[in-house]
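2024-03-11 09:14:02 DEBUG pipeline.ingest accepted 1 chain
2024-03-11 09:14:02 DEBUG pipeline.ingest length=270
2024-03-11 09:14:03 DEBUG pipeline.predict start
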Amino acid sequence: MTTHDIPATATASAAAHQPLLHARGIIKRFGKFVALHGVDLQVYPRTVHSVIGPNGAGKTTLFHTLTGTLRASEGSVVFDGRDVTQEADHQRVQHGIARSFQVTSLFMNLSVRENLRLAAQGVHRSGAFDCWHPPSGARAHTDVVDTSMERMGLTRQANLAAGTLSHGQQRRLEVSMALASKPRAVFLDEPTSGMGIDDIDEMKHLIRSLRDDHTVVLIEHNMNIVMDISDTITVMQQGRILVEGKPNDIRNDERVRAAYLGNMITGGRA
């Protein structure tokens, strides 16, 4: 049987069982300090994969190395079959990796629509800072912008300056900006940080819906959210993976309980 004889459904099923992202032996050093000690991670397509752990566990450093904000000292990162270990963050965006940040990063004086247009335009460096031509036609990325706003419930705020939005709306805008690059995988770093109860519940449902079209890698301290929406949870401690599994397995794991309680006693920091 040739590859042409294999049904498309079988091919799609096989692809779903292959990791979209595979990190092997990730080590990150800052001088003599080792923040990550040989981390291995596999993230599968169209799942929500949460990375949790006490403060100082190395979660954000791992995010930085996977998305290209930081270069790994050792190890490899393979995304969609491509080795991106040596590529910078802007290059990884072009291959389908997008992220939000723990601290909201928006153009506060620009409208919601303009923030999203710049995010969509910035995928390709050649046109990212073209200030000589008005954003019309294809450069306006109207379809992408409108779809992103609708998905994150921001259509009514389209022409408002980002700085006038509530904190919850700003967090949704940042996630929407990540989606505007049409990523295959979106990395969300504490997207509910600082939100009120109503905003948190809405964001939880939005994140869960993202896996219909995207792979989601999530750092989140709100354990109720993590347990409700995750397909897989990786627990980190002191720069290493402590345990990985389904939410029920993690909830009942004594090693996880000990890691969190121990950190509370010692007062560890991220």
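2024-03-11 09:14:41 DEBUG pipeline.report Residues 264-270 have pLDDT under 50 and may be disordered.
2024-03-11 09:14:41 DEBUG pipeline.predict end
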